[in-house]
């Protein structure tokens, strides 16, 4: 697989030019190499090959946020009885649409866990604080009592670690991934068929 940019990568396309897009070129020998070999689903619902998925996603992560991605698939050969261009486009769009939906479901579950953790954390802070105040106010408090008081106070706030981690750090990488998949699901995809010339593109 190779990546290229510029007008050379748009040869064979008959509609509007993509000069304002960032173009990724994927070169494969035949159509089956585009798909995950162990996925039994019928086309176009089959998953992409994991290496091709990683190649596209890694490229997409590096694009500036306002840049429009486009995918050019070069096939050395294809079954002329199939509408290859439509099949590839439907597969790529459907695949990344499903990935986006999965990421958004994961984000929703994370926020649900965060709200549950937050409720548990607040309850723990309240109970630990009450216990710490009880220990600290007990008459004749010893050195052990003071240690227990501090331990309870610290323990209560430690209980807030998980909800704080979720709401401060864990959610935004998942949202960024969902947005990336949405961009890739909407990107123009086209196919050219024919032997690849190493001097072209």
Radius of gyration: 27 Å
Q: Looking at the structure, what is the overall shape?
A: rod-shaped
Let me know the number of strands: 3
Helix content: 40-55%
Number of domains: 2
Distance between the termini: 13 Å
Could you state the order of secondary-structure elements as H and E?
EHEHHHE
Q: Which spans of ≥5 residues are poorly predicted at pLDDT below 50?
A: 1-17
**Class by SSE composition:** mainly alpha
- The DSSP helix count reads 4
Q: What number is the mean pLDDT? A: 82
Strand content: 5-15%
In spatial order, strands of the major sheet run 1-2-3
- Tell me about the biggest sheet? 3 strands, parallel
Kindly describe this structure.
The chain is mainly alpha-helical and 201 residues long. It has 2 domains: 7-101 and 186-193, no CATH class; 105-178. It has 4 helices and 3 strands. Strands 1-2-3 form a 3-stranded parallel sheet, covered by helices on one side. The two termini are 13 Å apart.
